[in-house]
Amino acid sequence: MVFEPIGYIRSPYTDKFGIPRQPGLVKAAEARLELRPEFAREEAFKALDGFSHVWILFIFHQDCPEAGWNPTVRPPRLGGRESVGVFASRAPYRPNPIGLSAVEHLGLVRDARGLALRLRGVDMLDGTPVLDIKPYVPYADAIPEARGGFAVAPPSDPREVRFSPMADSDLERLDPDGTRALRTLITQVLEQDPRPGYMDRYPKRREFGLRLMEFDIRWCLEAGHIEVTRIYPAP
Known about the structure:
Layout: E1 7-10, E2 30-35, E3 53-59, E4 72-73, E5 84-85, E6 98-111, E7 114-120, E8 129-135, H1 138-141, E9 161-163, H2 165-174, H3 182-191, E10 207-212, E11 215-222, E12 225-233
């Protein structure tokens, strides 16, 4: 049995580090699902505009387990200290590297790049192959009485994010009129504290870097808050 992608995600996440660990956490993260020509038929999306959210079935294309897979993983939610079964996690390293995310959809658009579905709140790497789209049906998909295992409550409170004077200057130069909402995107991504879970055991100041769109973001944990130190155009 062979599956072909129906299209590919174009998102601000051009590197795996920094991608939120669940969909919907970074509302400022908008993306496009660009359909391959053979699937770029508007009639295939008839009545989808009546649904606010969709399920996206995709492939973790940079995490294919070429050397096999492990039956246990260490989820970031448990600080990277405890292991659980891979089927009790949403880790990308799976026997079949398939992901499933519920995201907001903002409608179809047709432009020079073809037909695309606009999405918000994505947690997918730029270039991610998509296998299918299904509508999110609240009465069937929402299960209020469900148990959440080791992830009962939402993640801890978001980190406060501050921008250094140099980072503020970089923003004024790189996004002068704010049309790209770069500050908001950076803030919402870093509020999730993308550091590996085990880093909480090492409080020493250390600079990190992540890439969003075509920008390199430099930041560090400083006295309990995250400080953006510099923003550079990516090489």
